[in-house]
Amino acid sequence: MATIDELFPRIGSVVLPGDALGDLEAGDSADPADGPGSTTSNSSLHAFTQHGGRLRLGPGLAQEGGRVIAASRAGVLQGSMGAASTGTGANAHSSQVARLYIASSQKRYVPAKDELVVGIITDRMGEAFKVDIGAAASASLSFLAFEGATKRNRPNLAIGALVYGKLAVANKDMEPEMVCIDAADKAAGMGELTGGYLIHISSGLTRRLLSRDPAVLIALGKHFALETAIGLNGRTWINAQTPQQVVLIANAIQNSEFMTVAQINAMVQRLVQAL
Amino acid sequence: MKDTPLSNNERSFVQGAMKSGLRVDGRGVYDFRRIRIAYQPERGHVEVQLGRTRVMVQVSCELTKPFPDRPAEGAVQFNVELSPMASPAFEPGRPSEQAIELSRMVERVVKDSNAIDTTSLCVISGEAVWNIRVDLHALDHDGNLSDALCMAALAGLIHFRKPEVSMPSLSSGDESVAGNLIIHDVREREPLPLSVHHMPLCVTFAFLDDGEHMVVDPTFQEERVAEGYLIVAMNIHREVCAVHKHGSVLLDASQISRCTKIAAIKVAEMTELLQKSIDEEEQLRANRRAGKAPAAAKSNKSTIFEYQGSIVQ
Amino acid sequence: MVTRADGRMPNQLRELSIEHAVLSRADGSSRFSQRDTSALTAVYGPAEVKSSKELLDKATVQTVFRPKTGLAGVDDHVCEAILRQALEPVIQRTANPRTSITVIVQVMHDDGALLACALNSASMALIDAGVPMSAVLAAVTCAWLPAADGSSERRLLLDPTLEEQTAATSIATFAFESTNQEIVFSSTEGQLTVDEYFYTIEMAQKAAANVLAFMRLSLERKFSKSV
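^ inputs. structure came back:
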């Protein structure tokens, strides 16, 4: 059983757009003159796919010419190996799935399906709100996409209101569609965000806040109660009991971007003491 | 492109904070953000940062014919460029109303207060005078462009050197050059500084609730929620050089007088900072000329990555 | 070998420096310097696009080139066109149809090889913005100088200063992409023999590989801090 590092020797290192990271075909096809950006031609990847192994390419990666996996943005190559079962019943067989993505940080949001975002209502048109989500196009949010909303009972949101919701439709060719209900028609934490404050952060920091143990939120939570709605579009809504605490949270989160856990704890401690 | 819309939540939070004397970036109401002045290798080229707001100036000069009504005076021209680099709301192309307003503002503060001696720009009365051009570029707009631009304009004018000019007389013997002005190369003869009479600097105040609440050096977000602004330009001698009020807020005379008092303190601090930065820069250049210079200590080392020029085989 | 006025060898580049993510408002930015020559670039996008410029199947690339003094003139508009033509092939435009990618270059200082510096700065700013690209772009300017005393051959100088450019009989700027080192952009002015032209390409290609190696190092440094 191959490990992810064997399949992709450049895992953990910085890759640049155009770098070839792996070749699905067998044999020594990579041009040796390509320099550090070239693929280390590995037959193990070929063997992996031949034996039913599957590849899942995340953001920043694409398959070029049907065989070479190439980066399309700069960042650190990350990946993991997992099991996946395909088919059902008698045909079911489990195979390995290699997941690969590039960890990087952006400010501009490109919508992706099922992502949670924080939007600003900019207009009402017909049966839907127009919502700015920081992407190239505004999202539409139907009046009926709220918990308990009916034709008669429409949500009353002002222009400029903040909403937390999920992208039900998001692809490069269509206008994104946002909803504030889950599959069971429940709000599940989505809907209008009242009060509080909005901070604008990079996608890298956003992912850190959404990780299993977000150091800065844990450190802050030891000192006072706080509320957050983290949007993958680089907007995070925060709230606390006093404006002073909100300002502290905003600064602590923004400061934490390039810090280690120890540094974050010390920084939060310092800010709280100065309060 | 449009600016990101401002949510009602942000608006009411920032306004509420301002009313209780709290600012989102943790500053006190009378505090300026950190000012950084970076002089570039070319004379008259300076970058000024006010927190995240960043502007650049390049001063240049050319010989022109003076205006007939002022034959013995040179000219100083200001041009503010609001490039889309600084904010997505700035459109490329013709100067916007805001750019013209800022150009005029800098002109009022620096030129109309006679900070630059225009008679010393005269080379031959009625024939040739120096026309000084001050090109100001906004690079990053996080509020309070006017204070940053005024400071940059002044720093650029002080840092600038104009080349020396001479006219060989007929008695020098060489008739071919007689009567023609010679602009000396800067390597041939030491160029000369402009004569700067005083240093007028701007302080911007943003108001809420009919002037009841006020902050100094507003950020872009504070500018967006404020109801009115007052720009006070002063020099170290506590002389008011220009006062400009815009926005819908109506200000009490006593409020304006309070602002000028605050401005006097801020201007004193800023003048000291500017003077110190210029002294350091001139010292650095003098050392470099004397050949004992360690290469200029680059600021912001953490984000700059340098290496020696490689030899290509 | 004759050394140059600034002490460099003819085939020596100036010191390079890159500052990533300098600006707070732009989606991506970079300042690229070749000693005194320096350009600052801001990138916005993929962002909304004016309907008159909208393309149904790909992103619209818009470029702005701003001089340091005076108003933008004909030469600056030529630079805008060059930037667009050189950047379009490396941007994966079909990834974000009906959007705009705006690249704004501000000249910080021109001491020769400005166009190459602007292209390098734009290349780094696009990477900082995370715009999907098929390769990294690296550019180099070369100048041919008239024969020096006692020699009958013209000399090729890499990464010329303004003074060297003024004395040059011809100047060539090339941009190469990172995957196969292919030429994305080529521009020459002045006379060159065919042999000289190919020799210039060969040298520029090697020099661009050095510039690219530096870009890679600089980005590795940046990401080792942030991710």
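Residues 147 and 154 of chain C are 4 Å apart (CA to CA). The radius of gyration of chain C is 18 Å.
thumbs up if we can close this ticket
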